[in-house]
Amino acid sequence: xxxxxxxxxxxxxxxxxxxxxxxxxxxxxxxxxxxxxxxxxxxxxxxxxxxxxxxxxxxxxxxxxxxxxxxxxxxxxxxxxxxxxxxxxxxxxxxxxxxxxxxxxxxxxxxxxxxxxxxxxxxxxxxxxxxxxxxxxxxxxxxxxxxxxxxxxxxxxxxxxxxxxxxxxxxxxxxxxxxxxxxxxxxxxxxxxxxxxxxxxxxxxxxxxxxxxxxxxxxxxxxxxxxxxxxxxxxxxxxxxxxxxxxxxxxxxxxxxxxxxxxxxxxxxxxxxxxxxxxxxxxxxxxxxxxxxxxxxxxxxxxxxxxxxxxxxxxxxxxxxxxxxxxxxxxxxxxxxxxxxxxxxxxxxxxxxxxxxxxxxxxxxxxxxxxxxxxxxxxxxxxxxxxxxxxxxxxxxxxxxxxxxxxxxxxxxxxxxxxxxxxxxxxx
Length: 428
Fold this sequence. Notes:
Elements (H helix, E strand, L loop, with lengths): L1 E5 L9 E7 L6 E2 L4 E6 L4 E5 L4 E6 L5 E5 L3 E7 L1 H7 L11 E4 L4 E4 L15 E3 L3 H10 L17 H5 L10 H15 L3 H4 L12 H16 L2 E9 L1 H13 L9 H15 L5 E3 L4 E3 L5 E3 L1 E3 L2 E3 L2 E2 L7 H16 L5 H4 L4 E5 L18 E14 L5 E14 L5 H16 L7
Parallel strand pairs: 15-19, 19-20
Antiparallel strand pairs: 1-8, 2-4, 2-7, 3-6, 4-5, 6-8, 9-10, 9-11, 12-21, 13-14, 15-18, 16-17, 20-21
């Protein structure tokens, strides 16, 4: 039986992909779990695995081909006779070579095609079709496969389904978002270049990452009632403690950044003001226990926001190591979907570029985002009339007024400032 290999949806926002590289060639024999290709999404380059065994008949997409719609054929595989017989038995009788039987009280692997075991003999059993690699990952991460909808042939669960599990319901609807870009493109594509027809220019095509950024931020500014709170924070004590810490960590090759302190300060502030640890889920507000923080990282052609989980429980050293690793993988576009989706709060810093202060656009569905400028030596008038030069950082909190009232946002920003001006609190 000939089977179409389809362009996978490797993230909830993905509508098109780029075939970056084929890892097989025509005539190769593959089995479930073998890597077929590298797919470039709007945010990362990910490996794509086979979900059927057989022989590669044809590679329909070329390496480097862009804007391939999700679920469109990119290759053809000739499967064996066993798979053809299985496919003709009907969905209710389909059986992979190794399936998982699930009952109300038991999950048990069975190898007999015609047998489903239920250890307690009660409740209805259902069959779950998954590739060997998907089953291995699920077992390692203790994921219940019965909670996952497979995107492979005949609903089989594949690796990418596990990677995006738990993030789909919180992401924005890409079709609605892209309507904004599509409508604008149609209205302006033919007119604007004509205005500049007598001037020399080159056309830069908008790639998947840029389209996603345009869609999300346009939607955010149009639909989210932003308000902005600004504050100057004294960083002298923090700079002194950071210097002492880095001197003591030289032998471990660890260097704590000011940004690491800011991440920890925001995490602790979310714990102190939990009404700000929220996201907008259209018809409801979700309030979180842990401080999961997204940090903006500039990459070629756009921006990614890797998410650090449970930051309130981590030391500055742990935050530093994890942030550097995620930032490097973000620049290489090697992040997995669960590493750049989620969180309830974002941080964007342009201080290293000399920007004194700026306003950031909220990263939906987050409740707020902190924009951090450069630390600048600034003369400050004291209460006794004297002038003292202090290390000052200017920050702006952008908050969603649907969830976070002004007074609550002010309390949250006040707590962030307090944590940064008393950095000893961040060492526990």
